[in-house]
Structures are given as C-alpha cells and as structure tokens.
UniProtKB/TrEMBL annotation:
It comes from Psychroflexus aurantiacus. The keyword Signal applies. This is YceI family protein. Residues 56-190 form the Lipid/polyisoprenoid-binding YceI-like domain. It comes from the Bacteria. Keywords: Signal. InterPro entries: Lipid/polyisoprenoid-bd_YceI (IPR007372), TTHA0802/YceI-like_sf (IPR036761).
Length: 194
C-alpha cells in the first residue's frame, strides 16, 4: 500500500472517530433495580424477583448524544430467583435444572441504533442470544434507555414461553396447581459509567 493511501485512510479514520466514544456502563443489584418475572396459574397469578445479576452495556456516544447500543451482556444466577415462597422457589429451580444450568444469560449479537423519542428517552430493538436450562435461542427485545444524571436506566419487557427452553412449567400439590407456559419478564436497571 502506498504511503499516501495509508495516510488518507488514517485521516479518514481520525475524522470518523472524532467526538465518538464507546463507554461502558454497569448495573448491580440495588433497591432501584429490578428484574421481575410474572406468570399465571390455575389458582392465581404469581411473580418472582431476581435478587442477583450482572449487567453491562457498551454505548456509543457522539458529542454527548447517545447513538447506539454496541453490546449488552446480562447474567442471572437461577438460584437468585426469589418469590418469597420457599416451595415455589424450589419447584422453579428444579424445573430450570439450576444445579446443572446455573445461569440465565443474554448476549447481544449486533449493535442497535437508538432513536430519541423524547428528550433523554431513547428506543431500540436489541437482538441477541438468550440461554437458559441448556437451550439457547435468538430473541429480539424492544428496549428504552432513559438518561439520568449519572448514567442510563434500561427498561424492557419480554414475553417468553418456558417450553421453548425445555422448561416444564412448575406444578404443586401433586399437580393440582399448574402454571401457565408463558411468563412476562420486566427489566428496570440503572447503569452507571464504569
């Protein structure tokens, strides 16, 4: 490659990258953060919280303007799911084979362009691989990012069918209480610059 071509390519790269930065943000378990799973049964609706998780986002910021989500990584220990009811938690861990498959993991597969819907509120469609109970599937999750004084709050809702991940919906009282196959997962996670 000629020196002039190399210099031109380097100059183009410099121009493109001016004002653009890729910044890491992390969320940790805290009072303001929640991952809530809601489901149904033939008796009553139920919910369960993830009490532990690790979440990281890499965001593309140009001249203080949020442009894209480069990457999202979320990991939840199965045995951190807590309904406040010991028997229900035990049934959940058994259904998800928690001793063998200890984590639920989501990893984005490609950058997602953000669209500002209102000042400080951005929307995007994040695609990636969701793995649990020994099964991995590609999913597409609509997300919102809300700018805060010190970071961004990620809000998302996702519907999942347990049988898609080879999870037998938990039962209780010798099968007289049965849960529905579909659950709704609600994310509300504030990420701070790491």
């Amino acid at each position: 490659m000629k020196l002039t071509t190399l210099i031109s390519a380097f100059a183009l790269l410099l121009i493109f990258s001016v004002g653009q930065s890729q910044t890491q943000f992390k969320a940790v378990p805290a009072d303001e953060n929640s991952i809530l799973i809601e489901g149904t049964s033939n008796i009553h609706d139920w919910e369960i919280l993830a009490k532990d998780f690790a979440s990281e986002m890499e965001l593309v910021i140009e001249e203080d303007d949020l442009k894209a989500i480069n990457a999202i990584q979320l990991s939840i220990p199965v045995k951190s799911f807590d309904s406040g009811k010991g028997k229900m938690d035990k049934n959940t861990y058994e259904a998800m084979q928690a001793d063998t498959y200890k984590l639920v993991v989501f990893t984005s597969s490609a950058p997602a362009t953000l669209i500002e819907k209102s000042p400080g509120v951005y929307q995007a469609e994040v695609k990636g691989k969701l793995s649990m109970s020994g099964t991995a599937k590609m999913v597409s999750i609509p997300v919102e990012l809300h700018k805060t004084k010190t970071g961004y709050t990620l809000k998302a809702e996702q519907e999942l069918n347990m049988t898609d991940y080879k999870i037998e919906p938990p039962t209780a009282l010798f099968g007289t209480i049965t849960t529905g196959e579909t659950v709704h997962v609600n994310f509300d996670l504030t990420h701070y610059k790491s």
